[in-house]
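SAMPLE LOG
Freezer: B-3
Tube label: C17
Construct: single chain, 108 aa
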Amino acid sequence: MTVRAYVPATFDLLARFHAEGEVPTAGAVVAVDESEDAEYAALVEAAEVSAEMSGGGRRVVVVAEVPHEGAVAPMRDVASVHVDTEDGADPDDELAWFATQEIPHLLE
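STRUCTURE (predicted):
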């Protein structure tokens, strides 16, 4: 069984994860169960932490499947990246979903 970890990040951290080929998930938000509502709540909580980390800049959340909480996820186990599409997005705005193949484009 795997755990879906919602890793709050910044664009600088996303670039580091991409360059290093792995995502540390210590401190990630994990849903209380596998329901859609719980998964969404975990994403929102991770986005709030990301906003604090970025000083109010664009939020970034990396979602990875790991064998247990706190494990390091190789990039192949990253399911998606969720980001604000523009600076100054409202905290109530939905994050946009991106596939891992789109990370280089996000970092341009």
